[in-house]
Each structure stands twice: as structure tokens, then as C-alpha cells.
Amino acid sequence: MNIALAHFRVGETDGVSLEMEKWRKVLERIGHRVIFISGTRNYGEICIPEMDLHSELFEKHKRNSYEKLADYESEGDFKRDILKYADIIEKKLDEVVEREKIDLIIPNNIFSLGVGLPIAIAFHRVIKRKGLKVIGHHHDFYWERENLSHPTCDFVRECLDKYFPPLDIPMVHVVINKIAQKELKKRKGVDSVVVPNVFDFEQPLWVYDDFNKDLRERVGLSANDIVVLQATRVTERKAIEISIEFVGELQRRREKLHGILYDGRNFSKDDRIVLLMPGLIETGNEYVEFLKGVAKHERVEVLWINSLIDAKRSTKDGEKRYSLWDTYVVSDIITYPSVIEGWGNQFLEGIFAKKPLVVFEYPVYKTDIKDLGFEVISLGDVFETRINGKYVSIPKEAIIKAVEKAISVLKDEKAYKEMVEKNFELGKKYFSYRTLERILSDIIKNVP
């Protein structure tokens, strides 16, 4: 079968782009031909520029849909502009479907997020007219985003009702967690299949090698320093302030760590405990400054090393760029304090890396992951906001309890190994490419 996976962008580090790459690998493995359709230029795939998430046009349409109808004389003018671009995208998509002989199309977030109105309209028209098979992969819904919850006019409300998702074309609806499944049924009366995020558990394990063996030294770490890794991007909902407070509490109890660690290293009063931050900063300076303030108050050393990290390893002008996976290799324990996640890619990465995970039990973790038996160091499931509804705090006793558990694991070779090996086997069982292969094979058989 010729299958097209479509999204506003491809080849980036956002969760949707990453999952599309995984779906492609699995679909190709079971014998299908797969192409990408997006607004991303210079990726070597099919590009429809009017779909570009980063374009001024896309931003303009989004702004006028949900903030203020400010760039048009009237709602009628706005509607005409949206439909004009829907016509343009429809024509180009038509040509792609014909040329590539597409049998099945998989729009990612195009029928759920509520942005890119011309794109949703165009895809709906082409799918309906040509009778294409469709799997709607809905990673995120507009009702989950506060900034997409206030349409500026009736036309936008009509579009949300009609296209997000459309109910007048046969489609298998795929969501990424049970909460979204329940909400989609409640709001739209639509049944859906939960397909979790997955990870390649069959790839070689991440280990020290000739490329990354100097990474600790490069960022100023000694062999015996304890490294706590916060592998996520830097944005408010990742609640990184909790990681800093966790490390602060660990620091205050550091004497309990003195002596031999889980891997035979000898941790002494001269060695450090540091928080390693390789993630891209995707927020304004205000949050970064807030985090730096928390770190100063907690006396936590934070290493911001995103400038050394690329999507893939590379060497340019003699300067190494390490992959995110290399930062897992140099770490001892991973913090994952997000209070909200659609699923949790970094959770799976930590499981694959065979590192203990310090986890805030966010809602999807509780509904979709917790009961599978993973052993984590829990930060509990209770939080409140600190300043004007911004930034997160959790009870002090939850942090202390997590720190004490972390210390016991870091000091015990057997406990450390049993925890990470158990989690790895569970990850492989429930969230591997083979699991996705089984699920997708069944879905494709049942696409109307």
C-alpha cells in the first residue's frame, strides 16, 4: 500500500515529528511504501509550503483564529482568505495523491489541533472526493490548549465543529492516551484506538564509546561526580523547578552518598552533584531566569549544555556535537517532573537508557503507564502553582521521600540493576516497535 503521513512539519524534535518517523519505520518494515507530506522545506520529502507551521501565513491565521481578528476588515474577509488557501493546498494535495498513487493517508494533528484551518479543509475535501482510506492520528486536541480555546468568530467555531475531527468521512481515529480517548468520545461521540508512543528497544544500547567518552570532561565533570539528567526541552510544563529542588535536597543529604556507589565509583566530599540540562530552550527568558533563581536559592549547579547537543552526532570544524542519547550515558539518574504530558517520550528514553527515573505522576502516567508495573522513584501526584498561577511546587515531604529512595538506589548495585532491568523488559514488552507493528497491522486491516 502507498501511505502518506502528513503533518505541518517533519524532521524536527517535537513529539509528533518523532512519532511519525517511528510509524514510518514500522510501516515500511511490514511492506508498505511511505511518504511524508508537510510544510517543511529542504527535507527531501513532499513539501506544500502553505502547510508550514513556522510561516508568517500560518501564524497570521492562528492569531486571527484565537487571539483577535485584527488583520482583516471583517469575518467575511478572514473566511475568504482561509478558503483561498484551502483551494491552493487542495490543488497541490490532489496532485501529490495522483502522482504518488496514495491509498491511505494519515493526517497527524491536522484534524485535531484546531490550527491550520485551510489545511484541514483541503485535506477533508481531497479525502472525501477521492474516497481515500484515512487514519486520523490525533496527538493533541484544541480543547487541551488554553490558547486555542477561545475562537474569535463564528467561522472558526464552525470549522472546529466540522473538521476537528470530521465526522462525515470514514476514518479510524487514533489517540495517544486513555484520557484523550475518553474526552473525544464525550465531546464528539467518536470512538478511537489508543496507540501509545513507542521506542526502538532493539537498537544497540547507549554506552560509552570513542565519540562520547570525553563528554563528562568537556562539560567540566569529574569521573566521580553524580549527574542528574533533565533530558526534556526547557518549557514551563516540564516543571524543571522540581528537578532543581530534588537536586537541592539530594545535595543537603549528600553525606549519605559518601563511599561506594552502585557502579563502584567512590563519591567523596570533594565530588559534586550536578543537574545536566541538554534540552532546547523553548520558552521566554522569564522562565529561564526563574529556574536560575531557584538553582541559586537551592545552591544547585546546573549545566546548560544545549549548545553541544544536536539531533545526531556530528563534528564541524573540529568541534563535536553530541546526541541527546550521549547525555543519558553520562548520567546516573533521570528526573521527569512534568505535570502534564500527552504521553512521555523521555520516560521511554530513560527506561531504554537503563537509568532510575524520578517521576511526578502526571495524569497520563497514572492512566496509561503506572499499572503496567514500572518501578520509579515517585514525586507523588499533587502540585500547586507558585506565582500568579505560574510555575509549580510539590509538597516538601514528597521531595524528601523521593530523595531518600534515590539515595538508597544509588548506593545499592543490586537494587539499581534490578530496577532498571525490570523497567527495560517492561518497556520492550509494551512500548517497542514490535508492539506498534502489531497494533498498526490490525488497524490497517480495519480501515473502512
Structure characterization notes:
The chain has helices at 15-29, 56-66, 75-100, 117-130, 154-163, 178-188, 215-218, 240-252, 285-298, 324-329, 345-352, 363-369, 396-410, 413-431, 433-445; strands at 2-6, 33-38, 46-47, 104-107, 133-138, 172-175, 193-194, 226-229, 259-260, 266-267, 273-277, 301-304, 309-310, 314-316, 319-323, 333-336, 357-359, 377-378, 384-387, 390-393. The chain is an alpha/beta fold and 448 residues long. It has two domains: 2-198 and 434-445, Rossmann fold (3-Layer(aba) Sandwich), CATH 3.40.50; 215-430, Glycogen Phosphorylase B (Rossmann fold). It has a seven-stranded parallel sheet. A six-stranded parallel sheet has the order 12-11-8-16-17-18, with helices on both faces.
Radius of gyration: 23 Å
Number of domains: 2
Structural class: alpha/beta
Name the CATH superfamily classification of the largest domain: Glycogen Phosphorylase B
Alpha-carbon distance between the two ends: 15 Å
Q: The CATH topology of the largest domain is what?
A: Rossmann fold
The best one-word shape is: globular
- Work out the helix count: 15
Widest β-sheet, arrangement of strands: 3-2-1-4-5-6-7
| Helix share, percent | 40-55%
The counted number of beta strands is: 20
In percent terms, what proportion of residues is strand?
Answer: 15-25%
Q: What is the oligomeric state here?
A: single chain
Major beta sheet, specifics?
Answer: 7 strands, parallel
Observed structural traits:
448 residues, alpha/beta, Rossmann fold, 2 domains, 16% strand
List the helices and strands and how they pair.
Blueprint: E1 2-6, H1 15-29, E2 33-38, E3 46-47, H2 56-66, H3 75-100, E4 104-107, H4 117-130, E5 133-138, H5 154-163, E6 172-175, H6 178-188, E7 193-194, H7 215-218, E8 226-229, H8 240-252, E9 259-260, E10 266-267, E11 273-277, H9 285-298, E12 301-304, E13 309-310, E14 314-316, E15 319-323, H10 324-329, E16 333-336, H11 345-352, E17 357-359, H12 363-369, E18 377-378, E19 384-387, E20 390-393, H13 396-410, H14 413-431, H15 433-445
Parallel strand pairs: 1-2, 1-4, 2-3, 4-5, 5-6, 6-7, 8-11, 8-16, 11-12, 13-15, 16-17, 17-18
Antiparallel strand pairs: 9-10, 14-15, 19-20
Helix pairs in contact: 1-15, 3-4, 8-9, 8-13, 14-15
